[in-house]
Amino acid sequence: MPLHVRVELAHGATQVLANQQKVDLLHIKGPAVAEGLRRPGTASTDADVLVRPQHVPRFMAGLERTGWILRTDFRDGSAFEHAAGLYHPHWGLLDVHRRFPGMDRDPEHTFEVLWGRREHTRLAAIDVAVPDRTGQQLVLLLHVARSEAPAMDQHPDHAVNWGHASEQDRQAVVELAREVHAEVALAAATDQLDAYDGDPEAALWRVFSRPGHTRLEEWRARVQAAPTRRAKVGVALRAFLVNKAWLAEDLGRPPTRADMVRAFGGRFVQGARDLGRMSRRSAQEHLHIDREGPS
Known about the structure:
Layout: H1 3-21, E1 25-28, E2 47-51, H2 56-65, E3 69-72, H3 74-77, E4 83-88, E5 92-97, H4 107-116, E6 119-123, E7 126-130, H5 133-145, H6 156-163, H7 167-179, H8 183-189, H9 200-208, H10 215-225, H11 229-238, H12 244-251, H13 257-292
Parallel strand pairs: 2-5
Antiparallel strand pairs: 1-2, 3-4, 4-5, 6-7
Helix pairs in contact: 1-2, 5-6, 5-7, 5-8, 9-10, 10-11
Protein backbone atom coordinates (compact mmCIF):
# COMPACT_ATOMS: atom_id res chain seq x y z
CA MET A 1 0.00 0.00 0.00
CA PRO A 2 1.47 3.42 -0.92
CA LEU A 3 2.58 5.37 2.15
CA HIS A 4 0.45 8.44 1.41
CA VAL A 5 -2.65 6.21 1.19
CA ARG A 6 -1.81 4.53 4.49
CA VAL A 7 -1.36 7.89 6.22
CA GLU A 8 -4.71 9.14 4.96
CA LEU A 9 -6.38 5.91 6.13
CA ALA A 10 -4.80 6.42 9.56
CA HIS A 11 -6.43 9.86 9.70
CA GLY A 12 -9.76 8.31 8.79
CA ALA A 13 -9.44 5.48 11.33
CA THR A 14 -8.63 7.87 14.17
CA GLN A 15 -11.61 10.05 13.26
CA VAL A 16 -13.98 7.07 13.31
CA LEU A 17 -12.72 6.21 16.80
CA ALA A 18 -13.02 9.85 17.92
CA ASN A 19 -16.63 9.94 16.70
CA GLN A 20 -17.42 6.76 18.62
CA GLN A 21 -15.86 8.10 21.80
CA LYS A 22 -17.10 11.69 21.45
CA VAL A 23 -13.52 13.00 21.39
CA ASP A 24 -12.72 16.40 19.91
CA LEU A 25 -9.63 16.36 17.73
CA LEU A 26 -8.09 18.40 14.94
CA HIS A 27 -6.16 16.79 12.10
CA ILE A 28 -2.91 18.67 11.53
CA LYS A 29 0.01 18.58 9.08
CA GLY A 30 0.38 16.16 6.19
CA PRO A 31 -2.71 15.47 4.09
CA ALA A 32 -4.85 17.54 6.49
CA VAL A 33 -3.15 20.74 5.33
CA ALA A 34 -4.89 22.84 2.68
CA GLU A 35 -3.29 22.29 -0.70
CA GLY A 36 -1.94 25.81 -1.13
CA LEU A 37 -0.09 25.63 2.20
CA ARG A 38 1.70 22.33 1.67
CA ARG A 39 5.33 21.92 0.73
CA PRO A 40 5.33 20.78 -2.90
CA GLY A 41 6.54 17.25 -3.58
CA THR A 42 6.57 15.98 0.01
CA ALA A 43 4.49 13.37 1.82
CA SER A 44 4.02 12.60 5.52
CA THR A 45 5.15 9.33 7.03
CA ASP A 46 2.61 9.46 9.87
CA ALA A 47 -0.75 10.94 10.82
CA ASP A 48 -0.88 13.81 13.32
CA VAL A 49 -3.85 14.80 15.46
CA LEU A 50 -4.26 17.43 18.17
CA VAL A 51 -6.71 16.27 20.84
CA ARG A 52 -8.69 18.34 23.32
CA PRO A 53 -6.49 17.89 26.44
CA GLN A 54 -9.28 16.67 28.72
CA HIS A 55 -10.20 14.02 26.11
CA VAL A 56 -6.67 12.61 25.77
CA PRO A 57 -6.88 9.80 28.38
CA ARG A 58 -10.15 8.49 26.90
CA PHE A 59 -8.79 8.66 23.36
CA MET A 60 -5.51 6.93 24.24
CA ALA A 61 -7.38 4.12 25.98
CA GLY A 62 -9.60 3.70 22.92
CA LEU A 63 -6.61 3.57 20.59
CA GLU A 64 -4.95 0.81 22.59
CA ARG A 65 -8.22 -1.17 22.70
CA THR A 66 -8.49 -1.01 18.90
CA GLY A 67 -5.03 -2.37 18.13
CA TRP A 68 -2.79 0.71 18.30
CA ILE A 69 0.53 -0.04 20.00
CA LEU A 70 2.19 2.67 22.10
CA ARG A 71 5.76 3.28 20.91
CA THR A 72 6.62 6.44 22.86
CA ASP A 73 4.60 7.98 25.67
CA PHE A 74 4.16 11.74 26.01
CA ARG A 75 7.14 12.10 28.32
CA ASP A 76 9.31 10.01 26.01
CA GLY A 77 8.33 11.53 22.67
CA SER A 78 10.26 14.80 22.69
CA ALA A 79 11.77 17.47 24.89
CA PHE A 80 8.41 19.24 24.83
CA GLU A 81 6.59 16.10 26.07
CA HIS A 82 3.76 17.05 23.74
CA ALA A 83 2.97 13.92 21.71
CA ALA A 84 2.72 10.16 22.02
CA GLY A 85 3.70 7.92 19.11
CA LEU A 86 1.65 4.84 18.22
CA TYR A 87 1.75 2.13 15.56
CA HIS A 88 -1.00 0.03 14.02
CA PRO A 89 -0.32 -3.03 11.82
CA HIS A 90 -2.79 -1.78 9.21
CA TRP A 91 -2.75 2.02 9.56
CA GLY A 92 0.90 2.66 10.33
CA LEU A 93 2.19 5.53 12.49
CA LEU A 94 0.21 8.08 14.49
CA ASP A 95 1.28 11.03 16.64
CA VAL A 96 -1.29 12.08 19.23
CA HIS A 97 -0.63 15.65 20.38
CA ARG A 98 -1.95 16.74 23.76
CA ARG A 99 -0.54 20.20 23.09
CA PHE A 100 1.53 21.83 20.37
CA PRO A 101 5.01 23.26 21.07
CA GLY A 102 5.07 27.02 20.92
CA MET A 103 1.42 27.50 21.80
CA ASP A 104 1.38 25.27 24.84
CA ARG A 105 1.27 27.79 27.68
CA ASP A 106 -2.43 27.03 28.16
CA PRO A 107 -3.27 23.91 26.10
CA GLU A 108 -7.00 23.98 26.91
CA HIS A 109 -7.32 27.61 25.83
CA THR A 110 -5.29 27.01 22.69
CA PHE A 111 -7.40 24.03 21.67
CA GLU A 112 -10.61 25.94 22.32
CA VAL A 113 -9.43 28.82 20.13
CA LEU A 114 -8.42 26.52 17.27
CA TRP A 115 -11.58 24.42 17.67
CA GLY A 116 -13.76 27.50 17.55
CA ARG A 117 -12.23 28.44 14.19
CA ARG A 118 -12.17 24.92 12.76
CA GLU A 119 -13.04 23.96 9.21
CA HIS A 120 -13.81 20.55 7.70
CA THR A 121 -12.29 18.45 4.96
CA ARG A 122 -12.46 14.80 3.92
CA LEU A 123 -9.72 12.26 4.48
CA ALA A 124 -10.24 8.63 3.49
CA ALA A 125 -13.86 9.56 2.69
CA ILE A 126 -14.38 10.63 6.32
CA ASP A 127 -15.37 14.15 7.38
CA VAL A 128 -12.65 15.53 9.68
CA ALA A 129 -12.04 18.80 11.52
CA VAL A 130 -8.91 20.81 10.74
CA PRO A 131 -7.66 24.22 11.88
CA ASP A 132 -8.71 27.08 9.63
CA ARG A 133 -6.22 28.43 7.09
CA THR A 134 -4.56 30.78 9.59
CA GLY A 135 -4.39 28.04 12.21
CA GLN A 136 -2.74 25.68 9.74
CA GLN A 137 -0.17 28.34 8.84
CA LEU A 138 0.65 28.92 12.50
CA VAL A 139 1.01 25.17 13.18
CA LEU A 140 3.39 24.78 10.24
CA LEU A 141 5.45 27.83 11.22
CA LEU A 142 5.82 26.67 14.81
CA HIS A 143 6.98 23.32 13.48
CA VAL A 144 9.54 25.19 11.36
CA ALA A 145 10.82 26.90 14.52
CA ARG A 146 12.13 23.58 15.89
CA SER A 147 13.32 22.14 12.58
CA GLU A 148 17.00 23.10 13.04
CA ALA A 149 17.06 24.53 9.52
CA PRO A 150 20.33 26.37 8.73
CA ALA A 151 18.16 29.44 8.16
CA MET A 152 14.44 29.64 8.81
CA ASP A 153 13.71 31.30 5.48
CA GLN A 154 15.27 28.29 3.71
CA HIS A 155 12.64 25.91 5.07
CA PRO A 156 9.93 25.20 2.44
CA ASP A 157 7.08 25.64 4.95
CA HIS A 158 8.46 29.06 5.86
CA ALA A 159 8.46 30.17 2.25
CA VAL A 160 4.86 29.10 1.65
CA ASN A 161 3.37 30.31 4.92
CA TRP A 162 5.43 33.41 5.67
CA GLY A 163 8.04 34.40 3.11
CA HIS A 164 5.63 34.43 0.17
CA ALA A 165 2.48 35.04 2.21
CA SER A 166 0.47 38.22 1.76
CA GLU A 167 0.68 40.95 4.38
CA GLN A 168 -2.93 40.19 5.27
CA ASP A 169 -2.12 36.49 5.88
CA ARG A 170 0.93 37.40 7.96
CA GLN A 171 -1.06 39.77 10.12
CA ALA A 172 -3.73 37.11 10.68
CA VAL A 173 -1.05 34.65 11.81
CA VAL A 174 0.46 37.23 14.18
CA GLU A 175 -2.95 37.96 15.71
CA LEU A 176 -3.71 34.26 16.21
CA ALA A 177 -0.24 33.73 17.73
CA ARG A 178 -0.99 36.50 20.20
CA GLU A 179 -4.31 34.88 21.11
CA VAL A 180 -2.71 31.50 21.88
CA HIS A 181 0.46 32.94 23.50
CA ALA A 182 2.71 31.79 20.65
CA GLU A 183 4.46 35.10 19.98
CA VAL A 184 7.93 33.91 21.01
CA ALA A 185 7.83 30.68 19.01
CA LEU A 186 6.52 32.54 15.97
CA ALA A 187 9.39 35.00 16.37
CA ALA A 188 11.76 32.03 16.26
CA ALA A 189 10.17 30.82 13.03
CA THR A 190 10.33 34.26 11.43
CA ASP A 191 13.87 35.14 12.59
CA GLN A 192 12.73 37.84 15.01
CA LEU A 193 13.84 36.34 18.33
CA ASP A 194 16.10 39.30 19.10
CA ALA A 195 12.95 41.22 20.01
CA TYR A 196 12.57 38.85 22.99
CA ASP A 197 16.14 38.96 24.35
CA GLY A 198 16.16 38.12 28.04
CA ASP A 199 12.98 36.07 27.88
CA PRO A 200 13.63 32.48 29.10
CA GLU A 201 11.22 31.13 26.50
CA ALA A 202 13.22 32.90 23.79
CA ALA A 203 16.39 31.21 25.05
CA LEU A 204 14.65 27.85 24.71
CA TRP A 205 13.54 28.52 21.14
CA ARG A 206 16.96 29.87 20.23
CA VAL A 207 18.44 26.50 21.18
CA PHE A 208 15.83 24.44 19.32
CA SER A 209 16.08 26.52 16.18
CA ARG A 210 19.88 26.25 16.02
CA PRO A 211 21.39 23.38 14.03
CA GLY A 212 23.73 21.14 15.98
CA HIS A 213 22.65 22.19 19.47
CA THR A 214 23.74 19.88 22.27
CA ARG A 215 21.44 17.98 24.61
CA LEU A 216 23.03 19.85 27.52
CA GLU A 217 22.11 23.20 25.95
CA GLU A 218 18.60 21.91 25.39
CA TRP A 219 18.12 20.79 29.00
CA ARG A 220 19.62 24.00 30.41
CA ALA A 221 17.24 26.08 28.32
CA ARG A 222 14.29 23.91 29.35
CA VAL A 223 15.13 24.42 33.04
CA GLN A 224 15.38 28.19 32.52
CA ALA A 225 12.04 28.28 30.67
CA ALA A 226 10.12 26.22 33.28
CA PRO A 227 7.58 28.58 34.88
CA THR A 228 7.97 27.57 38.56
CA ARG A 229 10.75 26.40 40.86
CA ARG A 230 9.05 23.03 41.22
CA ALA A 231 8.83 22.68 37.43
CA LYS A 232 12.52 23.60 37.09
CA VAL A 233 13.48 20.87 39.58
CA GLY A 234 11.33 18.33 37.74
CA VAL A 235 12.93 19.15 34.39
CA ALA A 236 16.43 19.04 35.88
CA LEU A 237 15.83 15.62 37.44
CA ARG A 238 14.45 14.18 34.18
CA ALA A 239 17.63 15.30 32.41
CA PHE A 240 19.47 12.45 34.15
CA LEU A 241 16.93 9.75 33.30
CA VAL A 242 17.44 7.35 30.40
CA ASN A 243 14.63 7.41 27.85
CA LYS A 244 13.69 3.72 27.84
CA ALA A 245 11.56 3.97 24.69
CA TRP A 246 14.32 5.63 22.66
CA LEU A 247 16.88 3.13 23.96
CA ALA A 248 14.63 0.23 22.93
CA GLU A 249 14.33 1.73 19.45
CA ASP A 250 18.13 2.09 19.19
CA LEU A 251 18.70 -1.48 20.37
CA GLY A 252 15.84 -3.03 18.41
CA ARG A 253 14.70 -4.88 21.56
CA PRO A 254 13.56 -4.15 25.12
CA PRO A 255 16.57 -2.89 27.11
CA THR A 256 17.94 -4.96 29.98
CA ARG A 257 19.00 -3.51 33.33
CA ALA A 258 22.62 -3.63 32.13
CA ASP A 259 21.64 -1.67 29.03
CA MET A 260 19.99 0.97 31.23
CA VAL A 261 23.07 1.25 33.45
CA ARG A 262 25.38 1.64 30.45
CA ALA A 263 23.08 4.26 28.93
CA PHE A 264 22.94 6.13 32.24
CA GLY A 265 26.73 6.26 32.36
CA GLY A 266 26.81 7.31 28.73
CA ARG A 267 24.70 10.37 29.57
CA PHE A 268 27.49 11.69 31.80
CA VAL A 269 30.11 11.04 29.12
CA GLN A 270 27.93 12.83 26.55
CA GLY A 271 27.37 15.67 29.02
CA ALA A 272 31.13 16.16 29.35
CA ARG A 273 31.49 16.22 25.55
CA ASP A 274 28.63 18.72 25.30
CA LEU A 275 30.32 20.97 27.86
CA GLY A 276 33.45 20.94 25.72
CA ARG A 277 31.47 21.83 22.58
CA MET A 278 29.63 24.60 24.39
CA SER A 279 32.90 26.05 25.72
CA ARG A 280 34.49 26.03 22.26
CA ARG A 281 31.40 27.60 20.68
CA SER A 282 31.29 30.31 23.36
CA ALA A 283 34.98 31.08 22.84
CA GLN A 284 34.47 31.34 19.07
CA GLU A 285 31.50 33.67 19.53
CA HIS A 286 33.46 35.94 21.88
CA LEU A 287 36.39 35.98 19.43
CA HIS A 288 34.02 36.95 16.62
CA ILE A 289 32.58 39.79 18.72
CA ASP A 290 36.07 41.04 19.69
CA ARG A 291 37.12 41.13 16.03
CA GLU A 292 34.03 43.05 15.00
CA GLY A 293 34.41 45.55 17.81
CA PRO A 294 31.60 47.42 19.54
CA SER A 295 28.53 48.33 17.51
